[in-house]
Amino acid sequence: MDYLSDDLALLTRVLEIYDQKYVAIYLNSISGRDWCRENINRLVNGKDKNRELTRREFDALAQLLPPPPAHHPEYDFDFIDLFAGIGGIRRAFDQQRGRCVFTSEWNEPATRTYKANHYCDPDSHTFNDDIRKITLSDQPEVSEEEAYRNINQKIPDHDVLLAGFPCQPFSIAGVSKKNALGRAHGFECKTQGTLFFDVARILKAKRPAAFLLENVKNLKSHDKGRTFRVITETLDELGYWVADMETTGSVDPKVIDAKNFIPQHRERIVLVGFRKDLNVHEGFTLRDIRQYYAKEKPRLGDILDKAVDSKYILTPKLWEYLYNYSAKHKAKGNGFGFGLVGENDITRTLSARYYKDGSEILIDCGFDHSKELHHPDNMKNRPRRLTPLECARLMGFIDNNGNTFRIPVSDTQAYKQFGNSVVVPVFTAVAKLMKDRILEAKTKQGEVAIAA
């Protein structure tokens, strides 16, 4: 065995998640040796061939990487994870014995958190940053045939495509030009220049049995409804049936509120689709998600720590600003202001801007509304932000079922990441609804392959 080679491979993977200073401190806590950033850097760069990890150090370092699931290597289906963030949707499908074979996420801090928490088998999983490197959508000189060939080479076959793609308007310029020239146009024209275009190209090239797309609730009304219409028309053009498309209005099963699972009001639109030719979609509806609503939903108080670092308590100046800002807008009849919540309340939506002032979710530490803001009791009992670990619980990454979550980034990055993520139990419920259809589709595809 080449121990030095093994050391380098392990260190390289760990340093994709944690910085050299953290690793040095960690190793010194294990062995008490003279580890520092400099000698770790020299080891990684091949400049110190005399230093090796001890077996104890090696084993401890390996503990920083997520372990394979208990059922590894026995999986029920394969999926890919696009615009993955920190892997909220992936975690839901992992729990259904799915195997992730490809991940794409461009944000470096998010990939660190992702790699700290999700097992990625080096023999069957590929990690990519910019999805356009796969779809070649940023290279207009590349032909469609060449783009699809590259997708097929770079992305493994899979049964389910997962994507929480950004919401972007579609330009009509390309469509108008082709209309003027009398040329036919489809999704390649209508969606070009958006990241949904990359999703569509992958669906066309790989033809997975199913997909799950997630976005903000406002996707339905974005650009006066045109964005949503182009997306659904594209999915139909590609040969996919989309669940509950006949339902619109305020009671739409495609719009799911996380408050039925955790104490947070967070609405997201979920598009679940199946290939029409496989005919496994009959009777599927997201209305059935009700059967997975939490029987005993956790209280906000259940996810809060009893004591937190004082840095999470608002400063007197910030609390005064937020209080006066809210009062000013209330006087004008506006709803702008902070969201002060207690242990039995439902919070507002945690957003990616939470790191700025935490105003949408402030934990009440004893504020007395009958007293003036500057009363000594009120200034002593100023509200606080959630900690990153509490955010992880509020988003369902950590629960009472033994699921844990590592946060290898700064508080600022953690707040952005959780604010941009999804509530895991919501998508666990959707994954449970989908699984039987996914397995049925796999069986049908296997029968076709045998017949051929």
Automatic annotation (TrEMBL):
UniProt key word Transferase: yes
GO molecular function: DNA (cytosine-5-)-methyltransferase activity; DNA binding
One GO biological process term: methylation
EC number in record: 2.1.1.37
InterPro entries on file: C5-Methyltransferase (IPR050390), C5_DNA_meth_AS (IPR018117), C5_MeTfrase (IPR001525), C5_meth_CS (IPR031303), DNA_meth_N (IPR040743), SAM-dependent_MTases_sf (IPR029063)
Active site per database record: 167
Keyword vocabulary terms for this entry: Methyltransferase, Restriction system, S-adenosyl-L-methionine, Transferase
Domain DNA methylase N-terminal: 9-65
The reaction(s) this protein catalyses: a 2'-deoxycytidine in DNA + S-adenosyl-L-methionine = a 5-methyl-2'-deoxycytidine in DNA + S-adenosyl-L-homocysteine + H(+)
Family (UniProt): Belongs to the class I-like SAM-binding methyltransferase superfamily. C5-methyltransferase family.
NCBIfam families: dcm, PRK10458.1
The protein's name in its UniProt record: Cytosine-specific methyltransferase
Lineage: Bacteria, Pseudomonadati, Pseudomonadota, Betaproteobacteria, Burkholderiales
GN (gene name): dcm
